[in-house]
Structure formats: structure tokens, C-alpha cells
Amino acid sequence: MNIKTLEIKEDTKYLESILRKQRESRYYKRIQVLYLLKTKQFKSLYKIGKFLSVDRQTVSRWLNLYVNEGIERLLMIKTHSNMKRVMPQNIFEEVKKKLNDTKGFSSYKEIQTWIDKEFGLKMIYKTVHKTVRYAMGAKLKVPRKSHIKKDPEAFETYKKTLIHI
Fold first, then answer.
1. Which residues of 78-88 are buried (b: 16+ CB within 10 A; e: fewer)?
2. CA–CA separation, 4 and 45 (whole Å)
3. Is the N or C terminus of the chain more exposed, i.e. has fewer CB atoms within 10 Å?
4. Is 84 helix (H, G, I), strand (E, B) or coil?
5. Nearest C-alpha neighbor of 6 from the set 69, 51, 64
6. Does residue 82 surpass a pLDDT of 70?
7. Crossing angle, helix 56-69 and helix 25-38, to 10 degrees?
8. What is the pTM of this model?
9. How many helices (H) and strands (E) would you count in the chain?
10. Between vectors from CA 152 to CA 150 and to CA 156, what angle results, nearest 5°?
């Protein structure tokens, strides 16, 4: 990308008005690149990138997007995933039932793979964790194994003589 031959179509007043409207830094920085070039404050992508704390290739990508598709496309950031972010109610109920079983689940990853296998629904780990832990109030604590030589009577005596502060 050669910034010497790049022509910014919008005037500085229009760019300033768009800058004032932006509430997210990721949109603000994109417009700020155009503004900085229009006002000739910087002469290289590297210096603009350093000023905005982004890589020069990111600045170049934004400028290519602007040149090829315009300012509207520059302000449109595509963010989507194929994975579901919300657990459907029927799956929610099934997971809840399975958690109440004596076997249940030993990890959130196990729940995630079970949902995928049983219902064919790929869910993000974070969604599974938040739903199970906070919406259902379940804790996946697995008891640790006890030593085979542990004396249960000695343990009970120890608990009784333990001083609670």
C-alpha cells in the first residue's frame, strides 16, 4: 500500500464527526487512520501503526478495505462463530438431569463433548462452563482418592480434637 498515492475521499470535518460518534476503540482507530492520513500528520504506515498501537500490516489491511469497499465497510466488523453461545432449554434440562445422576460429569469438557455427541450441537467451552456453574449452580468437584492405609477412626479423632478458630 502506497500512502502517497492514496486518496481519502472524505473531508476532515466529516472524518472528525465520525470519530466523535465512535464508542469502541476498534472502530475509532480505523477512522483515525484515515484522519491522520488526510491531515498529513504521518508519512508511513509504520508510524501510524506505532501511534495507534497496531501493526503496520493491520493499518495496510484497513486501508485496502477502505480503497476497495469504502468507509461503510471499514466500519463493519464481522464477528461470528459457528458455535452456539446459548444452551437451548431442552439441552439445559437434560444436562441438569444428568448432573443429578450418581455418575454425572467429572469436567466441563466432558459436558461439552456429551452435548456434541448426544444433540449434535457444538458449544463453546465458556458457555458450557457459565451455564452449568452459574445458571445451574453445579460444581463439578470430584472427590480425591483416599490412601488405602488410612485409618478412619484416627481421622475422626483428629477432626474432633481440631481447634476451630
1. eeeeeeeeebe
2. 11
3. C
4. strand
5. 64
6. no
7. 80
8. 0.49
9. 9, 0
10. 125
The CA distance from 93 to 3, in Å, is 57
Tell me how far apart the alpha carbons of residues 32 and 16 are, in angstroms, rounded to a whole number: 9
**With contact defined as beta carbons under 8 Å apart, do 96 and 136 qualify?**
yes
Instruction: Supply the pLDDT for residue 146.
Output: 79
Q: All 3 cell numbers of residue 142?
A: 470430584
Q: How confident is the model at residue 32 (pLDDT cuts 50, 70, 90)?
A: very high
Tell me the three cell numbers of residue 35.
484522519
Count how many residues are written for the chain.
165
Q: Are 152 and 111 in contact (CB under 8 A)?
A: no
State how far the Cα of 9 lies from the Cα of 121, in Å rounded to an integer: 46
